[in-house]
Specification:
This protein has 345 residues and is of the alpha/beta class. The protein has a single domain (11-208, 238-265, 295-310), classed as 3-Layer(aba) Sandwich (Rossmann fold). It contains twelve helices and 15 strands. It has helices at residues 11-19, 23-31, 46-60, 75-83, 96-101, 122-139, 174-194, 213-222, 239-248, 270-281, 301-307, 314-326; strands spanning 36-39, 66-70, 87-90, 107-110, 144-150, 157-158, 197-203, 206-207, 226-228, 233-234, 237-238, 258-262, 268-269, 286-288, 294-295. The strands form five sheets. Strands 3-2-1-4-5-7-12 form a seven-stranded parallel beta sheet, with helices on both faces. The chain has a two-stranded antiparallel sheet with strand order 6-15. Strand 4, helix 6 and strand 5 form a beta-alpha-beta unit. The chain starts with 10 loop residues before the first helix and ends in a 19-residue tail after the last helix.
Length: 345
């Protein structure tokens, strides 16, 4: 998929790539019954995820109501999502009355979360990441729920370990990661109490051409900024591949809740990726610190057994990002803070 595509030349082309459903997603939508709700639909992943669902329904020839709830940043943002074919609801998900005003849906994708700036407002971080999931788990107890979590709930592991497995005990470092484990526990509690079928997605890291770890490294190389090698290794996965796996995860919801790591199969080196971008930009990469022997890494073997391996390789994404930045295309300006080792985001 996309192996012969050298360059992504527009936002429309990018959004099409991110939301093109595979034949497996289309088949899934012929098999599942009922409507779909995306909670937190206006975030980084939500729009392309919801659009893939809409396109899958169209290609499958099935009719489903697809809802999206969020605090939309603007009327324009809301309109863009509505134009995809999503019925939207504007409101604060922390407001229990707003939650209870939302339509019921057979399948719920929970995308809401707080990371950026979490250290500056820890009470809000816990509210969004732990209290809100409790509200959702209660209101949508009759639904199947796929909830985004994060690989940050795992400890740092040896670089040559292959990454943490779903069976490994969580050891979250810092309050952000602890609050994310709190999110999981609330959905697990709801799953046990109400027999709700749940799948918890431990993701790190989704990337596309406007944000993500690869963009963070590329921008620093292009601007001749020093690259910190302290967190010297990482995993990534193309957001289009994430969207496919997450949508298909609804068929793997269970009670008690199922945990699923989603990431790419490669353990990437910050140094090597930076040097690759330096070659593209014809500049010299500058490094500080040394690679630690541990890093935050996931092992997504179980997801590959269920869904197959990601279709878009890191080398392809690096090439696309290099051209995207060279062409002066828009970036989201939301750094991932992948280099953080103490959990303080």
């Amino acid at each position: 998929m996309n192996k012969n595509l050298e360059r992504v030349t527009s936002k429309a082309m990018l959004e099409d790539l991110l939301s093109t459903p595979s034949k497996e997603v289309v088949k899934l939508f012929t098999e599942i019954e009922g409507d779909i709700m995306f909670l937190g639909v206006s975030g980084k992943i939500g729009p392309s995820l919801a659009r893939m669902a809409v396109r899958a329904c169209q290609e499958a020839g099935v009719t489903k109501r697809i809802y999206g709830a969020s605090i939309f940043a603007s009327d324009q943002e809301r309109l863009q999502i509505e134009q995809m074919g999503v019925e939207t609801f504007h409101g604060n998900l922390l407001d229990s009355e707003f939650i209870q005003s939302l339509p019921k849906a057979a399948h719920v994708y929970f995308l809401a979360g707080m990371k950026f700036g979490s250290e500056e407002n820890l009470s809000l971080t816990w509210a969004v990441n732990s209290f809100l999931p409790a509200l959702v788990a209660d209101y949508y107890k009759g639904s199947s729920i796929v909830a985004f979590s994060t690989g940050c709930v795992y400890p740092l592991v040896p670089v040559d370990s292959g990454g943490s497995l779903e069976t490994d005990m969580p050891q979250p470092v810092g309050e952000y990661a602890q609050s994310c484990l709190g999110r999981e526990r609330m959905f697990e509690y709801g799953s046990l109490q109400h027999k709700t079928r749940v799948c918890l997605i431990r993701l790190n890291y989704a990337v596309e051409l406007r944000y993500g770890v690869l963009v963070d490294i590329a921008v620093k190389v292009k601007n001749r900024q020093e690259i910190d090698l302290s967190m010297g290794h990482f995993n990534v996965i193309w957001q289009g591949d994430v969207n496919e796996m997450v949508l298909r995860s609804v068929a793997n919801c269970e009670s008690p809740a199922k945990i699923l790591n989603i990431t790419g199969p490669e353990t990437l080196s910050v140094r090597e990726v930076a040097l690759e971008f330096a070659k593209h930009f014809q500049v010299e990469a500058t490094f500080i610190e040394k690679e630690a022997g541990t890093a935050l890494l996931n092992n997504a073997s179980l997801a590959f057994q269920l869904f197959g391996r990601p279709k878009t390789a890191p080398r392809q994404i690096i090439q696309w990002i290099a051209h995207w930045i060279e062409d002066g295309m828009d970036l989201l300006g939301k750094p991932t803070h992948y280099e953080v080792r103490d959990g303080k985001y």
